[in-house]
Write a structure and sequence with these properties.
2 copies of one chain form a homodimer.
Chain A: H1 5-19, H2 28-35, H3 39-51, E1 55-58, E2 64-67, H4 76-84, H5 111-126, H6 130-144
The structure holds a DNA duplex.
Chain lengths: 156, 156
DNA sequence: TTATATCCGAGTAATTTAATAGGAATTAAA
DNA sequence: TTTAATTCCTATTAAATTACTCGGATATAA
């Protein structure tokens, strides 16, 4: 019942992009360096974000990525779902429209539990906007005076 | 972000035990047969439930398992946490007291997100008591007239 | 004494995750 | 027009986790 690095790294990447933007495209290599994640791996994650319409890419030299929408119109739920797939605790055709067949849904009692969990997770993440995290991130950085030196490998 | 078979099978096993009890110990082989889960694997799951004080075991012939407490005093949260470990979306020492060190917790912005998710999951599962599922299960079985024949392999 | 159970730990197969790697396509700037 | 910087895409691999299986020890009612 854990998020994978896709969700964790990917959210950090979007937050980095949103926090460090100066209205120009940011190269993935910059994000990768700041977040200490390999460029190759980040490419795969940002591809999901692009396909979900969360970031836009600008190809070629001086290219990079920009947010596709204002940060207050992007929910953390949008970001995490695009990276992790649905946030339901089980693959169940009644909760999400997955491909899993469930021939006994009328007899299934536990789906009552899975639905409650699923709804509560989605409500929680849809209630947080990227802009809130950006604000928090800038506040913290201002207080701490972050530089290259006092940053350390992040695990979660 | 999915529960493993530990949580899914284990919850079904407890629910089976609670639903089909007649105040005598139920052998694991019976639960295993009804739920179509291997006895060997179920053993590992019920061991967790026993250590968590959710079921009691009676050893020897005619032995088996019984609920350690009335079903209305056992929450689904208790059951799932004993099977899956903590239900937090990340291993973070600030959310749960795991062994993971986090040297930059004061700089971590995403923990705000993980905490909200974690709390919402735990609130959801702690708000459902086993007795509710038992009631629902009995109702459904009465309606459908469940027999060996119309049961089918459950996936979630 | 025997059959029926739980209990326990080791081993293994299958799946998923977390990357790495290499090259094609695109574009700004020299 | 060439070059360097960059995204884009797919295949492969290494590591970790999950989902079991297996064998035997221990306990106990009949």
């Amino acid at each position: 019942m854990k998020l994978s690095t896709k969700g964790r790294y990917g959210l950090r990447a979007v937050l980095d992009l949103a926090t460090n933007t100066d209205n120009e495209a940011i190269a993935l290599s910059q994000i990768a360096e700041r977040q200490e994640i390999s460029v190759n791996y980040l490419e795969q994650l940002i591809a999901k974000l692009r396909k979900a319409g969360i970031v836009n890419s600008i190809r070629g030299a001086q290219g990079g990525y920009v947010l596709a929408k204002p940060a207050d119109e992007i929910s953390i739920g949008d970001i995490l779902r695009s990276l992790e797939g649905d946030l339901s605790p089980v693959d169940c055709s009644e909760l999400n429209d997955s491909d899993t067949e469930c021939s006994h849904s009328d007899l299934c009692v536990t789906k009552y539990v899975w639905k409650r969990i699923s709804d509560s997770i989605n409500d929680a993440v849809d209630g947080i906007m990227l802009s809130e995290l950006v604000e928090e991130s800038r506040k913290i950085q201002a207080e701490a005076g972050i530089t290259q030196d006092n940053r350390s490998k992040q695990t979660c």
